[in-house]
């Protein structure tokens, strides 16, 4: 199997699309492994979640993913990140919240343990 490991998309749709295009240009993969922080900082949280879900993938939760849905306290973030988390929360649909809320913090996949860095 051939995988692509991605992380810290942070709602940057243009960059995420460029990475996916590069993956395809290099022959594609059977599955994307996302190590969290699909949302946060960037302007396109919903679109990034949607684009990720269009691909065969597995994903673990990042701190920004959980902060945006209230599973992690925003006061633990620096002031700018806290503002962005609150803004992101207002952008998400109920399906987005369900998706992010269902992400595990740790996942075993083949011989690997997938986690986010923070």
Automatic annotation (TrEMBL):
Domain Calcineurin-like phosphoesterase, first and last residues per copy: 1-117
Name of this chain's protein: Calcineurin-like phosphoesterase domain-containing protein
One Pfam family recorded for the sequence: Metallophos
Species in which this protein is naturally found: marine sediment metagenome
UniProt lineage: unclassified sequences, metagenomes, ecological metagenomes
A single GO cellular-component term on record: cytoplasm
MF-aspect GO terms: phosphatase activity
InterPro entries, per the entry: Ap4A_hydrolase, Calcineurin-like_PHP, Metallo-depent_PP-like
